[in-house]
UniProtKB/TrEMBL annotation:
Protein's recorded name: Bifunctional protein GlmU
Domain annotation MobA-like NTP transferase: ranges: 9-129
Binding site for Mg(2+): D109, N233
Organism listed in the record: Brevundimonas guildfordensis
Signal sequence coordinates: none
Length: 455
């Protein structure tokens, strides 16, 4: 195989996205807990694109800031005002004009399109490296407003926008996904010839197909599945994209040996990792950054984000693991326990109703029901350290910064404000007093009062 030509990507994201009816710019809406635009950038990176340019509108500074943070200012082209897809691609010329190689144009609102779906646009034509224009088409269940591909066997003759199409052309079900690839010089040359003399008075990217043919450059379509090229324009389509994304993730994890009795109720993020032999019970939700090893168990109604879970650990039901929760082998986190930024060594347990934030719990330590790591003083966060094998009695408040040594015990209901040395018992609560017979006398008096009143 010859080395592939250098590749670049132009991602269009300058549309207004008004149909989303959302203050958040459309391309920043998430699918699988990742912005749609990041999915598009991921695909371009996975294709090996050396240069990636995102075309943004001046109406959405958030999109610009997002791209600047991930790719740098060199990757931004501004289109203002937006005058069509062809005009949008031309806006990238100033940034990409010096590039030599092939460029692929994709959209920032097509979150399910993967590098593997796009790769065929770069495939060599029988006569060698493809030196013409390639588009990704798909068979549409409902072709609606999509551009229609006018094909002659493998040759793509033209793309006709629905607004310009005759009844005969509207009957065509082969549609344009919007993805197009060409040598960068050819694409910009052709775009310079595109006019806005059409029904929408826009500069159509799709016009380059006919213009290429006029020059004798080859033009072709390669096909992808309709679901993978779906675009998001409204909230209902965002939900539909999410459903397709989740379906693919569930199938992926089932195939990888994860046990789920009700996979349709489990929600994954784009980067969730789960090892084989792990069981995920119904109604578990993963936020980004969750890494679950092999042979763990996540019980129902748990929420797991930015957390690591080792082999043999058991989480939930009704547990919340937040970023930095790091559970060692065999750790048990039970119902209504929240863990944030705490490492729990092997065999440690917090079985009921606790908040463990910012700290370290040693191996086999037992955190009683209702224990709180008081980590925040209103200004700063502080750490709590619980030593190996310590036993923290129920309903204790450990006021950080504080260290409970190895093998210590904390009496139930304690407020611990000072360090406890290994092996010691800490009691931080009022001493109990008992008044013999007091309750019996009190109840007797009250019963008598009540009886007198109700007569
Ligand atoms: C486009 C295609 C159509 C294809 C369809 C697939 C053209 C002329 N038509 O139509 O053949 O079937 O996509 O969904 O290309 N954008 C900009 N600047 C602009 C206009 C658009 O950045 O000035 C971006 C949008 O944000 C969007 C993408 O380009 O991500 C497509 O624009 P849209 O207006 O939705 O094009 P369609 O009319 O749907
Ligand atoms: Mg569209």
């Amino acid at each position: 195989m010859t080395a592939p030509h250098p590749r670049a990507a132009i991602i269009l994201a300058a549309g207004q996205g008004t149909r989303m009816k959302s203050p958040l710019p459309k391309v920043l809406h998430p699918v699988g807990a990742r912005a749609m635009l990041d999915h598009a950038i991921d695909a371009a990176e996975a294709l090996g694109c050396e240069r990636i340019v995102v075309v943004v509108g001046s109406h959405s500074p958030e999109v610009r800031a997002h791209v600047e943070k991930r790719l740098g200012a060199d990757s931004i082209a501004v289109q203002d005002p937006p005058l069509g897809t062809g005009h949008a691609v031309r806006a990238a010329e100033a940034v990409l004009g010096d590039f030599v190689g092939h460029v692929v144009v994709t959209y920032g609102d097509v979150p399910l399109l993967k590098a593997a779906d796009i790769e065929p646009v770069f495939a060599e034509a029988p006569e060698g490296v493809h030196e013409g224009v390639t588009v990704i088409g798909f068979e549409a269940r409902d072709p609606g407003a999509y551009g229609r591909l006018i094909l002659d066997d493998d040759d793509l003759l033209a793309i006709t926008e629905a607004k310009e199409a005759s009844a005969e052309v509207l009957a065509v079900t082969a549609c344009n996904s919007g993805v197009m690839a060409a040598p960068v010089g050819l694409l910009f040359d052709l775009l310079a010839e595109v006019t806005n003399d059409n029904a929408k008075s826009e500069y159509y990217l799709t016009d380059v197909v006919e213009l290429a043919r006029k020059r004798g450059a080859p033009t072709r379509a390669v096909f992808a599945a309709e679901d993978s090229v779906m675009g998001v324009n409204a909230q209902s389509e965002l939900a539909q994209a999410e459903a397709l994304f989740q379906k693919a993730q569930r199938e992926h994890f089932l195939a990888a040996g994860v046990t789920m009795s009700a996979p349709d109720t489990v929600h994954f993020a784009w980067d969730t990792q789960v090892g084989a032999g792990t069981t995920i019970e119904p109604f578990v939700v993963f936020g980004p950054g969750a890494k679950v090893a092999e042979g763990a168990r996540i019980r129902s109604f748990s929420h797991v984000e930015g957390a690591r879970i080792a082999t043999g650990a058991e989480v939930g039901p009704y547990a919340r693991l937040r970023p930095g929760a790091d559970l060692g082998e065999g750790v048990k986190i039970g119902n209504f326990v929240e863990v944030k930024n705490v490492r729990m060594d092997a065999g440690a347990k917090a079985n009921h109703l606790a908040y463990l934030g910012d700290g370290h719990v040693g191996a086999k330590a037992n955190i009683g029901a209702g224990t709180i790591f008081c980590n925040y003083d209103g200004f700063f966060k502080h750490r709590t350290t619980v030593g190996e094998g310590a036993f923290v009695g129920s309903n204790s408040s450990l006021v950080a910064p504080v260290t409970i040594g190895a093998g210590t015990m904390v009496g139930s209901g304690s407020v611990v404000t000072r360090d406890v040395a290994p092996g010691d018992l800490a009691l931080g609560r009022a001493e109990q007093t008992t008044k013999p017979g007091w309750a019996a006398r009190f109840m007797e008096t009250m019963r008598a009062k009540k009886a007198a009143k109700s007569q």
